[in-house]
Amino acid sequence: MSANNNAIIQFNHVTMQYDSDDAILKDVSFEIEHGKFYTLLGPSGCGKTTILRLIAGFLTPSAGDIYLKGKRINDVPANKRQVNTVFQDYALFPHLNVFENVAFGLRIKKLKQAEIDKKVTEALRFVNLSGYEKREISEMSGGQRQRVAIARAIVNEPDVLLLDEPLSALDLKLRTEMQSELRELQRRLGITFIFVTHDQEEALAMSDEIFVLNKGTIQQSGTPTDIYDEPINRFVADFIGESNIIEATIVRDYLVKFAGQAFECVDGGFNENEPVEVVIRPEDLELTTPDKGKLKIKVDSQLFRGVHYEIVGIDEAGNRWMVHSTRKAAVGEEIGLIFDPEAIHIMRFNETEEEFDKRIEEFTEVSGDED
Amino acid sequence: MRTRSRNFYLAPYLLWIVLFVAAPILLILYYSFQDVEGGWTLSNYSHFFTSVYMKMTLSSFWYALLITFFSLIIAYPTAYLLTKTKHKQLWLLLIIVPSWVNLLLKAYAFIGLFGTYGLTNELLEAVGIGRQQILFTDFSFVFVSVYIFIPFMLLPIYNSLEELNPSLIHAARDLGASAWTTIRRVIIPLTIDGVKSGCQAVFIPALSLFMITRLIAGNRVITLGTAIEQHFLVTQDWGMGATIAVFLVIVMAIIMILTGRKRRGAR
User: Fold this and answer.
1) Which of A145, A238, B3, B129 is the most buried (most CB within 10 A)?
2) Tally of structural domains, chain A
3) Where residue A295 sits, what CATH number does that domain have?
4) How far apart are CA A289 and CA A287, in angstroms?
């Protein structure tokens, strides 16, 4: 495979390995397009930060090629790449004030003072920090430092902005605020953002595209709704939101058997009697009386979560079900569950992303279902 | 009650300060106003500001500057490399170990190495350059002094480099700075406190060296340190010796104030 000129960043079979240790990235390939908000999502140690560092140029891949705007950049040092990073700890220079921090990149490019003044002022206005030019970094709050770090990066007009878990040090309220601000900022700038996080809610809220990573490989990539509604495997289903993952057997296409009963579903392309896993999101389950339910569960525990009750019950076959409901139940009570055929998502064991995408596309068309 | 017990704990330290810091300084000050017969005089000071002593002062400063300069340009890159190595604690220990050996022993070791029939000359002869006068030269004096002072320069610089947040270096590179620009605009400004205390720890003692000037430089190099020793032990002109000492104490105090640490977080 050669460089794809439409992609702004392209990874071709990139592997990252230190000495004899296990590889941090294993044969990773992907493409990133211009002007979108991407999120690399995964637990710590999954390789997401490594990908960011490879793009920034702080690491060199052990194998494979990285392309930036169609040019191979494996051997291009960090300071010669048109990408900028917002670091997790912001990495602001403590010996320089806000203005000089933002002006750092411009001074290296040896721009004229008037031009530097103009660009820094504009960048600071962009992040709502006008008037803070003369402040020392030590006088700025966490949220303000975050903005300085963003201004320092975007003032250089990079092709790609890399963000390494920049919100993790902020408290919940500020974090939510910054999420929508970052999203808004990306739209206004129109450049590619690559955002690294381990917080699935953050990823779902902000991204155009999410790459879910685990153990050095990309498990699944797609839009937030794709990944949420159609996870490829147990890891993704579990990592993205709460889910009920139940072992099941395929009777035939569009009919799956679990908890001792066969249920209609909208997925196809399987073998008969193939063992699979079924995912049903807790919010897709509805409470009813035991006689009306497709399934009967006995309530084991209940938690009040504010917007809903989180009810956990056990069915007759011994499967554990989590339900999100605005209705209250009582521990020990028998209740019925109903759900639509569309709520059932079926995952095969060891299916690659390519096979998965192909099957989903093919069989969603046949069933005529767009959901 | 609380302050009383605190004063009680302070007592040994205060006693120490009074006996071994304040009292000697006062004594030196007292002697500096005494002539050889024990009468009060200002002649020591007027004598000090004559060309003989001014020349001596100048050469003291010059050598101390040379020693500090060479220690710095050797210690800074070494400290930087040290923070990058795998077994930094071990390497650091190896560099510090020589400073545990007595100064006099090290000086004698160098006499052996640099002497006319020493190892260095054997080597020079073997490669065909022939024997040279190494001992009792400016070169050997500065060389040995630098060797002795390097750990004192290295440690504070190493500590300040260790405190430096490595993502600042990444940030500088990310913003387009070359390796050299990163050193100049980020690493050096953020470790300048370590450089200052290192220079302080070398320059001040180097100003009053006398043992090495005698043993290695063979009294060819006359510094204020050697002059003080001569006046107290040889000419018995305690007044003059004390005057030079007072001058050195004042200079050191000024240096300490000028290079005083202004704490600035490196995080």
Assistant:
1) A145
2) 3
3) 2.40.50.140
4) 7
Give the sheet arrangement for strand A209-214, strand by strand: A83-86, A160-164, A192-197, A37-41, A209-214, A217-222
Q: What is the ipTM of this complex?
A: 0.82
CB–CB contact B170 A78 (8 Å)? yes
A84 CB neighbours in chain B (<8 A) are 174-175
Record: contact B190-A95, CB cut-off 8 A? yes
What distance in Å separates the CA atoms of residue B54 and residue B224, rounded to the nearest whole number? 10
Closest CA relative to residue A166, chosen from A197, A188, A141: A197
What φ, ψ does residue A241 adopt, rounded to 5°?
Answer: 75, 175
Question: Are A70 and A200 found together in one domain?
Answer: yes
Q: Which residues of B34-59 are buried (b: 16+ CB within 10 A; e: fewer)?
A: beeeeeebeebeeebeeeebeebbee
Residues of A in Cβ contact (< 8 Å) with B193: none
Is the CB of B46 inside 8 Å of chain A's CB atoms?
no
- Does residue A157 sit at the B interface (CB-CB below 8 Å)? no
Q: Say if A110 falls within a structural domain.
A: yes
Q: Cα–Cα distance between B232 and B242 in angstroms, integer?
A: 8
Across the interface, which of A58, A84, A95 has its CB nearest the CB of B175?
A84
Quote the tokens at residue A168.
Answer: 């993790």
In sign, the C-alpha dihedral spanning B154, B160, B163, B166 is: negative
A52 and A147 housed in the same domain: yes
* Same-domain pairing of A29 and A173: yes
The pLDDT of residue A367 is 46
pLDDT in tens, A52-102: 999 999 999 999 999 999 999 999 999 999 999 999 999 999 999 999 999
pLDDT at B267 over 70: no
The answer to the question of residue A1 being in a domain is no
Question: What CATH superfamily classification does B61-222 receive?
Answer: MetI-like (1.10.3720.10)
For chain B, residues classed under CATH 1.10.3720.10 are 61-222
Could you tell me if residue A2 is inside a domain?
Answer: no
| Per-residue pLDDT tens over the stretch B13-54 | 999 999 999 999 999 999 999 888 888 888 899 989 999 899
pLDDT of amino acid A322? 94
Q: What pLDDT score was predicted for residue B158? A: 95
For residue B266, what pLDDT band results from cuts at 50, 70 and 90? very low
- B176:A156 CB<8 A: yes
Question: What range defines the domain where residue A319 resides?
Answer: 285-338
Q: Is the pLDDT of residue A212 over 80?
A: yes
Residue A203 is part of a domain; what is its CATH number?
3.40.50.300
